[in-house]
Amino acid sequence: MTPYFALKAIHIVSSTVLFGTGLGTAFFKWIVDRSGSVVAIRVVGEKVVLADWLFTSPAIVVQAVTGITLSRLLGFPLTHGWLAYAIGLYCLAGLCWLPVVWLQIRMRDMARDSAARATSLPLQYWTYARVWFWLGVPAFLSVIIVFWLMVAKPG
Question: Of 18, 69, 96, 126, which sits with the fewest C-beta atoms within 10 Å of its C-beta?
Fold first, then answer.
């Protein structure tokens, strides 16, 4: 196996981990929030934060390193058409993800406190949940478009 194909395989697998973990944790967090169960929200919130640290964060780094390395191996400047758009959208998704992580940690902590005191979640939790959801929309759409750009490589 050539270094190119090894890097490409790592790049594809890490994109799968990044997208799959992001979509999966977002789905479960969104669904559990709808349940209103403070105990369930606490448990899922803890697991979502853990999954981001174990899977999403490393995949983000691997994506950037392998993507830049692959573009150099193929002789593409980072400012080249579709590649520049893909990088810009990747950065947009990352700019949405950073506050999402902060929100998830705050929401997890609120759910822990509420579960420990057997009280309902504070209104701030639900405000954070709405912001968290709406930050996910452009991040998700950006990643979908990046996948299309990587496959189609439009002229």
Answer: 126
- Which residue is it, tokens 């853990």? 50
Question: Token digits for 145?
Answer: 């478009």
Domain span including residue 52: 3-152
Pair of tokens at residue 125? 């939790």
Model-level pTM? 0.91
**Residue labelled with tokens 């496959």:** 151
Residue 49: per-residue pLDDT: 97
The tokens for 29 are 């967090």
Q: Residue 149 is encoded by which pair of tokens?
A: 């750009």
C-alpha 134/C-alpha 115 separation (Å) is: 26
Q: Which string of DSSP letters, residue by residue, matches 121-155?
A: PPHHHHHHHHHHHHHHHHHHHHHHHHHHHHHH---
Q: State the total domains in the chain.
A: 1
Distance CA 85, CA 91 (A): 10
